[in-house]
What we know:
The chain has about 80 residues and is an alpha+beta fold. The protein has helices at about 5, 25-35, 65-75; strands at about 10-15, 50-55.
Amino acid sequence: MTEHASQLPIFWGHGKDDPLVPIRLAEMSKEYLLSAGCKPATEESPAGLDYHTYDGVPHSVSPVEIADLGKWLMKVVPKTG
């Protein structure tokens, strides 16, 4: 992983009831990214992997996930003007 790639902010939401991409594979993928050099996002530094799982969500999105994505965007998109 390049230094630039390891600094990118990434929002990853995954439904725990996804029948197409089981949560086990999402967890394995998350662990791979972290082991390859992607850092976990923190409140102080949103650059990195911000991983969320959602109970009862299949291969789709939920209102809670959309709200989390909105909060994340407010942290990572630079303010203008």
